[in-house]
C-alpha cells in the first residue's frame, strides 16, 4: 500500500509539471495523517482561509491574497451543487478503477474549492492567476481525462492533442513509425529502431509501465502510465484488433505492446503483435515475436502458420515448410507447393552463381522473388551483384532499392555478423557505382567491423577509399581551374573502378574545358552505357556535340531528356535550337 501511494504521489508531481495544474490523485490519508488533517481543517476554519494542499514535485504559486469565505456560504453552496449534480450519472465506483483509491476524497475537496471560487468573484486561480471554473463532469476517469486534455490544449494550443480511434487520445507528432522532429515520447516495448525506426504511438489509455524519454517537462508519460494500469490486457488486445482491421497498424502495435507489458506470457498477444509488425514492414521483428509466441505455447497453430509465411518471404524454405506442417487446421496445401517452388528457384540461383552465369542468375533471382521470397535480402543482393557484373549499374541500384530495409542491429541478430556483412559488401558496391561515395565507405566500414577477415570486404574497402579520394582531389583541382591535373586525378580513380559513371562524367567536364570534345563525348557515352538515366552525362554529351555541330546527335539526346523532364526549360530551348539548326543544314544540303 505504501508503494502504491508513493507511485501516485510521483505521478501527481509529473502531471502538475506537464499540465500546469495540481495532481489529480489526492494523497491517501494514513492513520497517522488523520489527526494532522483534522487539525489543519480546524485551523483553516478558525482563520477563515482556504488551505491549498501541495502535491510532491509540484511548485504552485501562492495566491496574491487570502480569500475570505464564510462557513455558511461554503455549506449553502455545497448543498446547491449537490442538488445540481443529482441529474449527473453516478461516478464510477472505486472498484471499477482499483488504482483510484481516493477518488471520493479528491472530489469533495475539489467541490469545496470550486464553491469558494464561485462565491468570490475576486478570487485568483493559483495555477494560472485567473478565474477558473472546473466542470461538473470532472469526476471519475472520463471527467479527469477531459479536464487534463482541456488544460493541455489551453497551454499548448488547440492542435496539441487530437482524437484518435477507439476513443483514445494520442500525441500528434509521435505517430507510429514516422520520424518527426520535436519532442517525442517513446514507449520501450519490443525492438525499437534507433534512427528512423519505429516509435510507439502514445495513447492515454495504452501506455503500460515503460521507459520514457523526456526532453522537457511538457511530456505526458505520467498520464499515460496512470491510465494504462487500469486497462485489462484483453481489452487492449480487442482495441488493437479494431485498429488493425482499420489499417491503423502503428496504433495496433502500441496496444499489443501494452497488453504484453501487463501479461507477457500470453501467446496470442505476441502473435497479434507479429501481424502488426509484418504490416509495418518489420519482418525480422515479426519473426522474433512469432518465435516467442510458439515458445510460450508450442502448439499454437496460428503462430506456426504465420511464422511459416514469414520464413517463406525471407527465403528460409526449410524452416517455412516445418512450420507449415505444424500449423494444424491453419495449414493450406498451397503453402507447401509455393514453398517448393521457391526452393527450386533458389537452387538454380546457387548453380548460376557457381557457374558465373550472371544473366541466368538475374533470371532466377527474379523468379525467386515473384514466387514468394519478396523480403529476402540475400536474393536481392544476388540480383544486384549479377547486374553489376554485367555493367548494368542503374538496374542494380533499382533492384537493391526494392529490398526491404532492416536496421543493422536486427539484421545482425537474425543473419549473424558474417551473413549481414556479405549483404553490406554488395550494398557498398552499388552505392559506389551510383556515385554515392560516402554511403559506400560507410557500408563497407560497417561490413569490416562485422567480418574483418573477409578478403572481399578488404578488397572493396580499398577500392572505395581510392575512388572517393580521387573524386575529392579532382573536384578541388577543377574548382581551382587546374583542368589537366583534375583530369589526371579522375583518371587515377578510374584505374580502380573503370566504369564509374561519376568519375567518367567529371573527366568529360575537364576535357570539355580543355577543348577535347571528342574525348569528352567518349567519357559521357561510357557513363550513359552503365547508367542510361544519368541526366548530367547526357546533357554534357549534347553540349559537346553542339559545339561540334553534330545536330542529329544533339536532337537525339535532347529528345530523350525531354521525355524524362518535360518541364525543363533548358532542355526545351536546347531541343528547339538543335532542331532549327538541323532543318537549316538540311535545307542547305538540298
TrEMBL record:
Annotated SMART domains: TPR
State the PANTHER family in the record.
(RAPE) HYPOTHETICAL PROTEIN (PTHR46050:SF24), TPR REPEAT-CONTAINING THIOREDOXIN (PTHR46050)
UniProt feature, compositional bias: Low complexity? 74-84
What is an example of a Pfam family matching this protein?
TPR_2
Biased composition of type Polar residues is found at 29-56, 85-124
The segments labelled Disordered in the record are: 22-132, 568-590
Q: Is Repeat a UniProt keyword of this protein? A: yes
- List the source organism: Raphanus sativus
- Give the protein's recorded name: Inactive TPR repeat-containing thioredoxin TTL3
| Keyword Transcription regulation appears in the UniProt entry | no
TPR repeat segments run 233-266, 421-454
Query: Corresponding gene?
Result: LOC108861502
State the UniProt keywords alphabetically: Repeat, TPR repeat
Identify the GO cellular component terms for this protein. Answer: cytoplasm
Amino acid at each position: 500500500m505504501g508503494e502504491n501511494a508513493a507511485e501516485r504521489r510521483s505521478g501527481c508531481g509529473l502531471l502538475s509539471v506537464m499540465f500546469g495544474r495540481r495532481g489529480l490523485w489526492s494523497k491517501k490519508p494514513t492513520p497517522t495523517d488523520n489527526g494532522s488533517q483534522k487539525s489543519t481543517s480546524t485551523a483553516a476554519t478558525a482563520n477563515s482561509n482556504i488551505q491549498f494542499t501541495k502535491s510532491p514535485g509540484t511548485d504552485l504559486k501562492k495566491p496574491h491574497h487570502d480569500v475570505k469565505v464564510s462557513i455558511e456560504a461554503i455549506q449553502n453552496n455545497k448543498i446547491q451543487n449537490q442538488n445540481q449534480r443529482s441529474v449527473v450519472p453516478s461516478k464510477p465506483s472505486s472498484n471499477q478503477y482499483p488504482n483510484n483509491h481516493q477518488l471520493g476524497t479528491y472530489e469533495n475537496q475539489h467541490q469545496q474549492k470550486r464553491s469558494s471560487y464561485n462565491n468570490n468573484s475576486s478570487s485568483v486561480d493559483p495555477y494560472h492567476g485567473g478565474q477558473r471554473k472546473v466542470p461538473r463532469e470532472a469526476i471519475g476517469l472520463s471527467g479527469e481525462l477531459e479536464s487534463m486534455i482541456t488544460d493541455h490544449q489551453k497551454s499548448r494550443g488547440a492542435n496539441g492533442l487530437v482524437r484518435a480511434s477507439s476513443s483514445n487520445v494520442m500525441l500528434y507528432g509521435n505517430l507510429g513509425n514516422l520520424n518527426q522532429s520535436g519532442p517525442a515520447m517513446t514507449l520501450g516495448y519490443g525492438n525499437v529502431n534507433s534512427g528512423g525506426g519505429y516509435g510507439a504511438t502514445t495513447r492515454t489509455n495504452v501506455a503500460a509501465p515503460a521507459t520514457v524519454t523526456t526532453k522537457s517537462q511538457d511530456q505526458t508519460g505520467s498520464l499515460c502510465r496512470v491510465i494504462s494500469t487500469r486497462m485489462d490486457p484483453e481489452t487492449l488486445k480487442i482495441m488493437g484488433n479494431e485498429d488493425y482491421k482499420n489499417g491503423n497498424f502503428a496504433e495496433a502495435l502500441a496496444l499489443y505492446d501494452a497488453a504484453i507489458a501487463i501479461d507477457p506470457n500470453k501467446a496470442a498477444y505476441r502473435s497479434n503483435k507479429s501481424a502488426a509488425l509484418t504490416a509495418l514492414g518489420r519482418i525480422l521483428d515479426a519473426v522474433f515475436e512469432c518465435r516467442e509466441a510458439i515458445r510460450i505455447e508450442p502448439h499454437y497453430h496460428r503462430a506456426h502458420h504465420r511464422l511459416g509465411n514469414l520464413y517463406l518471404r525471407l527465403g528460409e524454405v526449410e524452416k517455412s515448410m516445418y512450420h507449415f506442417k505444424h500449423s494444424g487446421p491453419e495449414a493450406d496445401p498451397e503453402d507447401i507447393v509455393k514453398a517448393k517452388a521457391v526452393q527450386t528457384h533458389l537452387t538454380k540461383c546457387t548453380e548460376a552463381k557457381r557457374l558465373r552465369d550472371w544473366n541466368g542468375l538475374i533470371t532466377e533471382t527474379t523468379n525467386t522473388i515473384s514466387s514468394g521470397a519478396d523480403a529476402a535480402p540475400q536474393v536481392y543482393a544476388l540480383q544486384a551483384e549479377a547486374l553489376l557484373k554485367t555493367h548494368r549499374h542503374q538496374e542494380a541500384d533499382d533492384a537493391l532499392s526494392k529490398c526491404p530495409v532492416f536496421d543493422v542491429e536486427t539484421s545482425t541478430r537474425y543473419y549473424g555478423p558474417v551473413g549481414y556483412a556479405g549483404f553490406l559488401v554488395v550494398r557498398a558496391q552499388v552505392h559506389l557505382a551510383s556515385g554515392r561515395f560516402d554511403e559506400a565507405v560507410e557500408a563497407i566500414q560497417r561490413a569490416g567491423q562485422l567480418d574483418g577477415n573477409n578478403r572481399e570486404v578488404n578488397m572493396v574497402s580499398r577500392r572505395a577509399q581510392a575512388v572517393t579520394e580521387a573524386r575529392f582531389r579532382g573536384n578541388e583541382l577543377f574548382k581551382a581551374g587546374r583542368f589537366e591535373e583534375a583530369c589526371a586525378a579522375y583518371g587515377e580513380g578510374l584505374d580502380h573502378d573503370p566504369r564509374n559513371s561519376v568519375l567518367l562524367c567529371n573527366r568529360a567536364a575537364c576535357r570539355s574545358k580543355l577543348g577535347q570534345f571528342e574525348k569528352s563525348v567518349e567519357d559521357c557515352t561510357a557513363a550513359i552505357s552503365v547508367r542510361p538515366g544519368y541526366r548530367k552525362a547526357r546533357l554534357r554529351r549534347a553540349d559537346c556535340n553542339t559545339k561540334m555541330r553534330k545536330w542529329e546527335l544533339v536532337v537525339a539526346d535532347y529528345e530523350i531528356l525531354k521525355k524524362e523532364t518535360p518541364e525543363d526549360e533548358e532542355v526545351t530551348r536546347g531541343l528547339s535550337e538543335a532542331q532549327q539548326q538541323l532543318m537549316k543544314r538540311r535545307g542547305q544540303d538540298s
